[in-house]
Amino acid sequence: MPQSRITCHAVPTRKATNITRVEHRISTEQREARNRHRGGVLWFTGLSGAGKSTLAFGLEEVLFNRGYQVYVLDGDNVRHGLCADLDFSHGGRTENIRRAGEVAALFARAGIICISAFVSPYRADRQIARGAAPERFHEVYVKADVATCEARDPKGLYQKARAGEIRDFTGVSSPYEPPDAAEVVVDTEKQTPKESVAVLLAYVEDKFS
Hints:
Rossmann fold; disordered N terminus; alpha/beta
């Protein structure tokens, strides 16, 4: 596995000094008025196999069909481009979430609902993501224990992790820190995807309308 370019776990210090922030001429509130809903970040966290991507894309489809401006940032997809240079070490994971959090915040400020589906196993990293859009960040805990996720194992990752083919795999050889106070909890051990999407839809209609 290639080494990460990130060597520390903290938010990187800005290195450029000859830069000046430029203000937009169109406010977030104006963009939201045109979209007829608030922008924000729905940050899905949970173990691999808990159902994050299934629910994220399911919710995106429902919201889009109802006229919402919405887009999913999926953890696997982001690692094909924006975060292709990062590994799954603690430092690599931290930088992955920092970048994703900043991108999600840009969507939120554009008046769009950004559904971000990332394992994001560390509370401190999720707090960094929240810090990028503090007033518009909504943490969604997609809850399912390791046994349930391993029984599903849709990508065969747990099997590979148990065989030693994947290092630093969350839930097997790397820890997962569940949220202390997520805004929404969907329990995919007990709820079907349709039921979970219904819970999330109700939350969006309450908080983003």
